[in-house]
Amino acid sequence: MYLEENGKIGYHQAVVPQLFLVVNGEGVVRGNSEEEIKVNSGDAVFWNKGEWHETKTETGLTAIVIECDALDISSLIAL
């Protein structure tokens, strides 16, 4: 997906588990809370099914979004 300058994916619920991989640019994301978390190229964000979330960017952002009922990221998480 590509968000242009001042782009926004409004606050909505994830229909299935979702992995959001930022490949270029920067922006902010937020989940159920009002706290915004800055994301940059190389960052990944995971939202569980039913979790509310939003993405915004002032400068533009390109991301790969993977959505699947059976999405299992446990092997990707560093302990």
| Low-confidence runs of at least 5 consecutive residues | none
Please count the helical segments: 0
In CATH terms, the superfamily is Jelly Rolls
Element order: H for helix, E for strand = EEEEEEE
Strand content: over 45%
Q: Assign the CATH class.
A: Mainly Beta
Count of domain modules: 1
Specify the CATH architecture.
Sandwich
- Helix and strand content put the structural class at mainly beta
Shape: globular
Q: Please tell me the overall pLDDT.
A: 92
β-strand number? 7
Largest sheet: 7 strands, antiparallel
Distance between the termini: 29 Å
Roughly what percent helix? under 10%
CATH topology: Jelly Rolls
- Radius of gyration, in Å, reads 12 Å
Can you describe what's shown?
The chain has one domain (2-68): Jelly Rolls, CATH 2.60.120.10. Helices cover 0% and strands 52% of the residues. The protein contains no helices and 7 strands. It has strands spanning 2-3, 8-13, 18-30, 37-40, 44-47, 52-56, 61-67. Strands 1, 2, 3, 4, 5, 6 and 7 form a 7-stranded antiparallel β-sheet that branches. It is globular and about 35 Å long. The mean pLDDT is 92.
